[in-house]
Specification:
The structure holds two protein chains of two kinds. Chain A is α+β, with helices and mostly antiparallel strands. Chain A is built from eleven helices and nine strands. Chain B is of the alpha+beta class. Chain B folds into six domains: 82 residues, Phenylalanyl-tRNA Synthetase, Chain B, domain 1; 125 residues, Nucleic acid-binding proteins (OB fold (Dihydrolipoamide Acetyltransferase, E2P), Beta Barrel); 207 residues, Phenylalanyl-trna Synthetase, Chain B, domain 3 (Phenylalanyl-tRNA Synthetase, Chain B, domain 3, 3-Layer(bba) Sandwich); 71 residues, 2-Layer Sandwich (Phenylalanyl-tRNA Synthetase, Chain B, domain 1), CATH 3.30.56; 210 residues, Bira Bifunctional Protein, Domain 2 (BirA Bifunctional Protein, domain 2); 88 residues, Ferrodoxin-fold anticodon-binding domain (Alpha-Beta Plaits). The mean pLDDT of chain B is 94. The chains are: A alpha+beta, B alpha+beta. Chains A and B meet through helix 5, strand 1, strand 2, strand 4 and strand 5 of A and helix 9, helix 12, helix 14, helix 15 and strand 29 of B.
């Protein structure tokens, strides 16, 4: 009679040799190595053997189990590597087929620019102060050193409301007065704020001018704020906003609410200052109006101008956004046209 | 204003290239927008970028100053003549020309006194005078009606001076002219186009600019002579002045020139006026215009005899307010009704001119005028601004007076004007000037400690350097210790007598002339204000981020709309839904459909959807922006609102399952809203049946926080949708107040610990009445499930054959979990029984088998 151990061994190894997939392999394992499998049954027979044979038989069954376990592992590794090889061989897809569309969403380009501004100014200690759109003539003009009939009022075409004392702010500057009065504690505390917001001017809507536009105004008030600080601070902003090498030029200008006043130009980042269509071949792009806060404005904000000084600046995020992205038409901004918005 | 360099050089020596000068002026606040070259080449200045100019550069060897010796008839052609031109060569050159302004010299022999013109030799390039477009041509010899011709005398158009092509340039004789000299040395020029900010009223003239140039280049300024030769009778006794409104007319001066001759001005004067865009008229009027530009003092010339005739004797010039109903016909042929905002120059017979603005027709200078009364006056700039506004008239005079001309200039203009008129037209000037000066402006003196200059500029400027700048600008400067005591020159009205403001005025002058570039860049060393966070801004931005994360695009709309547009949001017969408040009405709207400020974002959202519909099958938009609600106060409330709009297919079409996916509906927007609330960690809200009239009443909802309705959303009311032609695909939109979201957001929300105890998962299906709100069922389940019921998720809603009619089946996946121990089957069964019991008892629900 043949040895049952040898018989099972032969049967198992033979059938294992023909196993080529993991399902059959699992079945094979159940059949031979499972709790009620062939090897298990051999262990079960141990008890019925004579005492003297038990040890030897037990050793043989253990050896068989170890051998079959090893054979299983080897087979499993083989099958897995074959399957992997097959998958690598045959499982290609056409990666040139269009992607499954994802909903992306996007911030308005003006919001993006405003965030850039806010982040840079926050690093320099300027916080956002929000002020109102519908404003008193008094704050928009008179308290900013633009009394009625002042020639500089011609510089801004104003939307008035039915009440002639009330208008749509033509610039964010009335927020300067509000910020000074609210945060300055009667002219006793320093201030550093930026004032972003929508402004309005009664102009013809064209590719270059709009009836509403955003501005970011900055204001620093202290006991020792110098014109050199204004230059240094704006130059630092330009480095962060445009490029670490950005060159900045300051030109004398005029705003009723600052004195001295200056326009700030940055070297054209499109042509590197060589002169191009966008910078009108001057090599410079105008990025801000600025100046030392006018003594009258300081006074109107509650500060004593012989003790306190400050600087202010105003920038147009739309213009900067247009320059950065080559936007030719300012009317795109409030058009809400998804073809425009989806490009950011 | 156009400033010819040739004219500027009368008063100041300029030894830098015009391009550098333009840059220097621009940086100092006189912005040169453009340089127009005449004949001269554009120069390349290192480090300076300029737009490349496309003008004609005159060849110095081929375009020359030529003397027209004689004009002969053309043997073959009546409409051509032969100009014999001495250009410095051995023989005069014969030029065939059709210039009509030479015909008068035809066959008159040698012309004396000599006349000069621009002579172009063979090979010279000029503009083609016959072409409408700018076209260059190079002269080549050819026969013109039988006479060989290889050079020409040029018109202004051919040389790019002006569009004039009626005749050739004919210049009066000047002893300095040399035949054959390069024309560029005589007529070559560059014109600076300068834009003046309102504070630069004093610069609004050639002398004004020259004064700046002198200060900036630190060179001497040469004023012209303001004296005049008076040989006539004293002016007193020939005319009187009466100023009735000294505030509006602080000074009025008159001079008189008798027995002069009105005729065309000489070449130099006409040329200068033409360069700056003025049309020459006659020697008298041209002088008044010339002084407007040279000195910045507008003037007016009257025909004295007409004044005498009107007065029936010695005229009295009266400046006064108009009488009710008074009219005046002005030089622009407009009969003007004079309102309250005007000051008249009048005589005893009536109005003569609109003071400081425009003259009247009746007493103007004509060809027959013999005696000229010249007015130079000062006018209150605000008064002039009001006149301009009321009369809607803009002249060179009113532009200057409205910005402010110092009254000191009137007397200068008077002297220089009458002398020029005498020189050009002959005659005798009356002795003296009639000068009424009731309101001289105060002389302003400012004390400026040098320490203040250094502190505010952030750099060391020596006392002497600062004083030098002010002296260059013609301030009278005295040094008292470390203080500069500066008295403003008499052409400036912009220096304040308020000590601190005056100091700022001077500081600006010092900084500007020293150059802003020489001020260092520094980092603020001042005390840093307390740092604070603007929660409103942070949450506003978080709202944007959450919505963008859900695939929505942010829009920013016009805040202008119309009542009619917003009325389209309200179905017929319905009341409009919040927000309540009055419209902010724009008094001067850009367009009638933009005459109020919006009270809702919905109108913007819908208009955006309409505009995008042509290109976008599906849209997901939001806007965070203000609305404007009048509440009876002077200023409206400006609350921030959030508008959201969804329309079109939920997924974009793709190549797998190519048929369009389902359209978005109410539940998509509900998802957006709830995700937003979850992102802000606002748990304490409820969503209830909608009440907003713009939405479908059965497919919309109101959002409540703290029992307060803060917004509504849902499917657009079909009637509203029809008005906007937004019926298919359906539009789902909503509007939510942002302030309550900011108030309720949890800055410091607490998270749940991550438990390791196993969860028990179980599904139950409840059959309830079909009209029972699912929200109520879930609320009952959650309440009954208590602490151990961790999650309730509805996964199926069924109505149909397998359950009774009028019923629906709601299938929930429930998760039970105890944070501290493993739940047994027994525990789970107990919770389940409680849930089913409560559902039966409170909802009449049956467990579905």
């Amino acid at each position: 009679m043949s040895n049952p151990i040898e018989q099972i061994r032969g049967e198992a190894l033979q059938s294992l040799a023909s196993v080529t997939d993991s399902e059959t392999l699992a079945a094979w394992r159940g059949k031979f190595l499972g709790r009620r499998g062939a090897v298990g049954k051999l262990f079960g027979q141990i008890g019925s053997l004579p005492q003297a044979e038990r040890a030897a038989f037990g050793q043989q069954v253990n050896a068989l189990q170890a051998e079959l376990d090893a054979a299983f592992d080897a087979r499993e590794t083989l099958i897995q590597s074959q399957a992997m090889a097959r998958d690598l061989e045959e499982g290609d897809i056409d990666i040139s087929l269009p992607a499954r569309p994802r909903r992306r969403g996007g911030l308005h380009p003006s919001t993006r620019t405003h965030r850039e501004f806010q982040a840079i100014w926050a690093d320099m200690g300027f916080h956002v102060y929000q002020s109102r759109d519908v404003e008193e003539d008094e704050l928009n003009f008179s308290l900013l050193n633009l009394p009625p009939h002042h020639p500089a009022r011609d510089m801004q075409d104003t939307f008035y409301t039915a009440d002639s004392r009330v208008l749509l702010r033509t610039h964010t500057s009335p927020g300067q007065i509000r910020a000074m009065r609210e945060l300055g504690a009667g002219g006793s505390k320093p201030i550093r704020v930026i004032l972003p917001g929508m402004c309005y001017r009664q102009e013809q809507i064209t590719a270059r001018s709009e009836i509403q536009f955003t501005q970011v105004e900055g204001l620093a008030i202290g006991r020792n704020i110098r014109m050199s600080d204004l230059k240094g601070t704006i130059a630092e902003f330009a480095k962060r906003m445009y490029s670490p090498e950005a060159k900045v030029r300051f030109r004398a200008s005029y705003f009723p609410f600052t004195e001295p006043s200056m326009e700030v130009d940055v070297e054209c980042f499109l042509c590197g200052g060589e002169g191009c269509r966008v910078c009108k071949y001057t090599g410079w792009l105008e990025i801000a109006g600025s100046g030392m806060v006018h003594p009258t404005v300081l006074r109107n904000g509650g500060y004593d101008p012989s003790e306190w000084s400050g600087f202010a600046f105003g920038m147009g995020p739309e213009r900067i956004t247009m320059l950065k992205h080559g936007i030719q038409d300012i009317r795109y901004f409030w058009s809400n046209d998804l073809r425009f918005l989806q490009q950011f | 204003m156009l400033v010819p360099i040739s004219w500027l050089k009368d008063y100041v020596d300029i030894d830098v290239p015009v391009e550098s000068l333009a840059e220097r002026l621009t940086v100092a606040g006189l912005e040169v927008a453009h340089i127009r070259y005449i004949g001269l080449p554009q120069q390349k200045v290192p480090g300076l970028q300029m737009p490349r100019s496309d003008h004609l550069v005159w060849d110095r060897d081929k375009i020359l100053l030529g003397r027209i010796v004689e004009v002969k008839a053309h043997p073959q052609a009546d409409r051509l003549v032969l100009a014999m031109v001495d250009y410095g060569g051995a023989e005069p050159e014969q030029c065939v020309t059709g210039a009509t302004n030479l015909f008068g010299y035809k066959d008159q022999g040698e012309i004396n006194p000599p006349i000069w013109s621009a002579f172009a030799m063979e090979g010279a390039t000029v503009w083609d005078g016959h072409s409408d477009k700018a076209k260059r041509m190079t002269l080549k010899g050819k026969e013109l009606r039988g006479i060989y011709n290889k050079s020409m005398v040029c018109s202004e158009k051919e040389l790019g001076i002006s569009d004039e092509h009626e005749g050739v340039i004919v210049m009066d004789h000047d002893d300095s002219y040399i035949a054959g000299a390069p024309l560029a040395d005589v007529l070559g020029d560059a014109l600076l186009d300068i834009e003046f900010t309102p504070n630069l009223a004093r610069c609004f003239s050639i002398i004004g600019v020259a004064r700046e140039v002198a200060a900036l280049l630190d060179v001497e300024l040469r004023y012209p002579s303001f004296n005049f030769l008076a040989e006539g009778e004293p002016i007193a006794g020939q005319v009187d002045i009466e100023i009735r409104e000294p505030e509006l007319n602080p000074r009025f001066t008159l001079t008189l020139l008798r027995d002069t001759q009105v005729k065309p001005s000489p070449f130099w004067l006409q040329h200068r006026l033409k360069l700056i865009g003025q049309r020459p008229r006659n020697n008298i009027v041209d002088v008044t215009n010339y002084l407007t530009f040279e000195l910045g003092q507008p003037m007016h010339a009257f025909d004295y005899d007409k004044l005498v005739e009107r007065a029936g004797g010695r005229p009295t010039i009266i400046t006064r307010l108009p009488e009710p109903g008074e009219q005046l016909e002005t030089l622009d042929d407009v009969l003007r009704d004079l309102g309250v905002e005007a000051i008249l120059v009048a005589d005893t017979a009536g109005a003569l001119s609109l003071g400081g603005v425009i003259g009247g027709g009746e007493t103007e200078i004509s060809e027959t005028t013999r005696n000229v009364l010249l007015e130079a006056a000062a006018w209150n700039n605000i008064g002039i601004r009001k006149t301009i506004k009321e009369q809607r008239v803009h002249t060179e005079a009113s532009t200057r007076f409205s910005r402010g001309v110092h009254p000191s200039q009137a007397i200068l203009g008077c002297g220089r004007g009458i002398e020029l008129m005498r020189q050009l037209g002959g005659g005798a000037v009356a002795t003296g000037v009639l000068d009424h000066y009731p309101r001289p402006p105060e002389t302003v003196t400012v004390n400026l400690p040098i320490e203040r200059v250094n502190r505010l500029l952030g750099m060391e400027v020596t006392l002497e350097a600062a004083a030098d700048v002010l002296r260059r600008l013609e301030f009278e400067v005295e040094l008292i210790g470390d203080v500069i005591r500066a008295t403003a020159p008499d052409h400036r009205l912009d220096i304040s007598s308020d000590e601190v403001v005056g100091q700022a005025d001077l500081l600006e002058e010092i900084a500007r002339v020293i150059g802003y570039d020489s001020i260092p860049n520094s980092i603020m060393a001042d005390e840093m204000p307390p740092q604070w966070e603007n929660t409103t801004v942070i949450i506003e931005e978080r709202i944007r981020d959450i919505l963008v994360g859900q695939g929505l695009y942010e829009v920013i709309s016009y805040r202008f709309t119309s009542r009619e547009s917003e009325a389209m949001l309200v179905p017929a017969g319905a009341r409009s839904s919040p927000p309540e408040g009055d419209y902010v009405q724009i008094a001067n709207p850009a367009a009638s459909e933009r005459d109020v400020l919006r009270k809702t974002l919905l109108i913007n959202m819908l208009e955006s959807a309409v505009n995008n519909a042509r290109y976008q099958p599906s849209q997901q938009l939001f806007e965070v922006g203000k609305v404007y609600l009048g509440r009876g106060d002077l200023l409206p409330e400006e609350p921030l609102h959030l508008g959201i709009l969804l329309t079109g297919s939920r997924d974009e079409p793709w190549w797998q399952g190519a048929e369009a996916s389902a359209d978005m509906d109410f539940y998509d927007l509900k998802g957006v809203v709830e995700s937003l609330l979850a992102g802000l960690h606002i748990d304490d809200y409820s969503i209830q049946r909608g009440s907003h009239s713009s939405f479908h009443p059965g497919r919309s909802a109101d959002l409540y926080i703290n029992r307060e309705r803060i917004g509504s959303f849902g499917e657009l009311h079909p009637e509203v949708a029809a008005r906007f032609k937004l019926t298919a695909p359906k539009v789902i939109c909503g509007e939510i107040q942002v302030a309550p979201l900011i108030q309720q957001h949890q800055r410091l929300h607490t998270i749940m610990p991550l438990h390791t105890t196993p969860a028990v998962l179980e599904d139950i299906a409840l059959v309830v009445n079909a009209d029972l709100a699912a929200g109520e069922v879930e609320a009952v389940i959650r309440q009954a499930g208590g602490r151990l019921l961790k999650d309730v998720r509805l996964f199926d809603v069924y109505t149909g054959d397998q359950i009774p009619p009028g019923k629906k089946s709601l299938a929930y996946a429930l998760t039970y979990q105890d944070d501290n121990r493993t739940l047994t089957d027994k525990n789970a069964t107990k919770i389940r029984r409680k849930i089913i019991g409560a559902a039966r008892h409170r909802l009449k629900a049956e467990l579905r088998a």
